[in-house]
């Protein structure tokens, strides 16, 4: 487990709040954000500052943990909706989560739901990070509900840095080592600095994919045979683009529920991931 976390680029996170107000103490709230530090201030200031209606004038609130590493806001928002509605999502129907058992506090229940969500599709294939922001609330996941091995568990503050890609007219000069075509957008490179692998994202993804799956988890480099985690490759790829600038996030965080109605696999220069699942997540 890492003790500190680096600044995260292209941040999409789903967080858990805990209420410290004696009148509402123990209540929780689940939300989505691109900037956790700004978001907790909004919740504690009220709706006039952009906070949610359900948290306004009920603080102070503390952000206990945040799950990040989602490929885009759609994926994170669907995770948020399912975490808020574990009795409605088709992914957790086998658990029969009707209400919070008397033996559990509300925060314990929410964390238990989270441990179940991390182990079912489509989320169990994503390179997620479970970031504990408050050590006092840390709960070790039971052995039967541990997160998949490729997911990371970290402690401490996390900061977001969201990027905006600048389209340029520079003619591509790098060729994909797998298909031998020029790479017009961002390229994937092996984590081994001495390896010469450079490829399109879809080319390497197709090499790593298991038949019947949509999202790669890991695979061996076709050049140096190093075992590569797909999430680490994507993070490195986002930092490789020399024609990008850091831009503060100007968008607003959403507290709306999201319903998904069809399957779709989204591929572009920046990502390869399952954006949608059947029916309600």
UniProtKB/TrEMBL annotation:
Enzyme Commission code(s) on record: 3.1.-.-
Keywords: DNA damage, DNA recombination, DNA repair, Endonuclease, Hydrolase, Metal-binding, Nuclease, Nucleus, Zinc, Zinc-finger
Enzyme class: hydrolase
Database matches in Pfam families: GIY-YIG (PF01541), SLX1_C (PF21202)
Domain GIY-YIG: 10-93
Cofactor (UniProt): a divalent metal cation
Cellular localization per UniProt: Nucleus
GO molecular function list: 5'-flap endonuclease activity; crossover junction DNA endonuclease activity; zinc ion binding
GO cellular component, one term: Slx1-Slx4 complex
Gene3D superfamilies: GIY-YIG endonuclease (3.40.1440.10), Zinc/RING finger domain, C3HC4 (zinc finger) (3.30.40.10)
Primary localization class, coarse: nucleus
BP terms from Gene Ontology: double-strand break repair via homologous recombination
Job description of the protein: Catalytic subunit of a heterodimeric structure-specific endonuclease that resolves DNA secondary structures generated during DNA repair and recombination. Has endonuclease activity towards branched DNA substrates, introducing single-strand cuts in duplex DNA close to junctions with ss-DNA.
Subunit structure: Forms a heterodimer with a member of the SLX4 family.
PANTHER family: STRUCTURE-SPECIFIC ENDONUCLEASE SUBUNIT SLX1
Record family assignment: Belongs to the SLX1 family.
Protein name per UniProt: Structure-specific endonuclease subunit SLX1 homolog
Origin organism lineage: Eukaryota, Metazoa, Ecdysozoa, Arthropoda, Hexapoda
């Amino acid at each position: 487990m890492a003790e500190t976390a680096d600044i995260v680029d292209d941040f999409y996170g789903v967080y858990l709040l805990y209420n410290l107000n004696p009148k509402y103490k123990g209540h929780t709230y689940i939300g989505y954000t691109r900037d956790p530090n700004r978001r907790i201030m909004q919740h504690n200031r009220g709706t006039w500052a952009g906070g949610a209606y359900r948290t306004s004038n009920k603080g102070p609130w503390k952000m206990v943990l945040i799950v990040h590493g989602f490929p885009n806001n759609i994926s994170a928002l669907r995770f948020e909706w399912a975490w808020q509605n574990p009795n409605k999502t088709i992914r957790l129907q086998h658990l029969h989560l009707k209400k919070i058992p008397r033996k559990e506090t509300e925060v314990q229940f929410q964390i238990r739901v989270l441990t179940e969500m991390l182990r079912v599709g489509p989320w169990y294939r994503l390179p997620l990070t479970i970031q504990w922001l408050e050590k006092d609330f840390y709960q070790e996941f039971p052995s039967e509900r541990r997160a998949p091995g490729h997911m990371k568990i970290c402690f401490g503050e996390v900061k977001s840095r969201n990027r905006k890609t600048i389209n340029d007219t520079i003619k591509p000069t790098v060729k994909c080592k797998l298909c031998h075509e020029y790479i017009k957008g961002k390229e994937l490179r092996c984590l081994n600095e001495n390896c010469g692998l450079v490829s399109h994202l879809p080319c390497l993804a197709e090499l790593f994919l298991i038949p019947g799956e949509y999202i790669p988890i890991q695979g061996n480099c076709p050049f140096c045979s190093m075992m590569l985690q797909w999430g680490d490759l994507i993070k490195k790829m986002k930092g490789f683009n020399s024609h990008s600038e850091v831009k503060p996030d100007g968008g607003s965080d959403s507290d709306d529920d999201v319903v998904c109605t069809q399957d779709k696999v989204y591929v572009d220069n920046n990502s390869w991931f399952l954006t949608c699942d059947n029916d309600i997540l």
